[in-house]
Amino acid sequence: MTPDLMEEGARRMQAYAQRQAQRTESGGRAASFRRLVKIGEPDFAHGVALYLEDITVSFDGFKALNALSLTVNVGELRCIIGPNGAGKTTMMDCITGKTRPDHGKVFFGSTIDLLRLTEPEIAQIGVGRKFQKPTVYEDLSVFENLELALADDRRARASLWSRLTGVQLDRIGEVLTLIHLRDHAQRTAGLLSHGQKQWLEIGMLLMQDPKLLLLDEPVAGMTDEETERTAELFLSLEGKHSLVVVEHDMKFVDMLTEGRKTVTVLHEGSVLAEGKLADVQANDKVVEVYLGR
Ligand code: ADP
Ligand code: MG
């Protein structure tokens, strides 16, 4: 081989290596599929946990989200209210990677662009989501459900048969107390009340110690007492975690906001009003489209 051919070969190999390196650094969710490089730690130094800018999501031309912007601070408990169809669940879908917006930015902390990550990657870096319906392993005990939640899916089955470390046992104990299920640890999850199942699912999320928790209508179907206890639970999580809570139950929102925190009202895919609950409840536009006279 002549020297110039070798040089040309070396140049091509270098260019190829460069392209490969760029592949993991750019592109959307499809490009990040099967990524091998580790995603960096989220950076919360600027006080922002979640940053949405100008998000638009269209379904067959209908805009479920329309230039939605929202910032949630580190440790904040933010309640989101708004009529059915306002886009609340779609907003959560965009944060968790289930839906990809047509336009806009979604950042976790100040550095992590969530639009470049897959759904499992987003969960893995510390975004936990609670759907409307509880999804626990009905045939397993409360304790076993929490134990399974310690491991990611691939290790889940093995983990049931391996011994827990002291730290893990302590964490399960802590979470059992938080979710008011300490006395039900050995009970089959399928036998719990609807409210208790909701708490267990929140407990499963907490086992992963998420930085940001997204909770979609968490008290739907709960009794008044369960609702109150859920409010206490969320208030105890505030500060350690950032929470985004979507709810229609104004009594619950009132308990969570304690008369001073910011509530965001969504309507037709964008922010209609933002402020203290009492203020947004007195807002004419909010009354008209959502709360009624
Ligand atoms: P909310 O949670 O505030 O009740 P959603 O986010 O569920 O509202 O829905 C917002 C709007 O987008 C609704 O009109 C809904 O019908 C529509 N929508 C949501 N998901 C889809 C989808 N996958 N395909 C078509 N339309 C959808
Ligand atoms: Mg919804």
Task: Please sum up the structure shown.
The chain is an alpha/beta fold and 293 residues long. The protein has one domain (48-291): 3-Layer(aba) Sandwich (Rossmann fold). The protein has 12 helices and 10 strands.
Folded structure, characterized:
By secondary structure, the protein is of the alpha/beta class. The chain has a single domain, classed as P-loop containing nucleotide triphosphate hydrolases (Rossmann fold). The strands form two sheets. It has a six-stranded mixed β-sheet with strand order 6-7-8-3-9-10, sandwiched between helices. Strands 2-1-4-5 form a four-stranded antiparallel β-sheet, with helices on one face. Strand 9 and strand 10 form a beta hairpin. The structure holds adenosine-5'-diphosphate and magnesium ion. The site of magnesium ion has 3 residues, from helix 3.
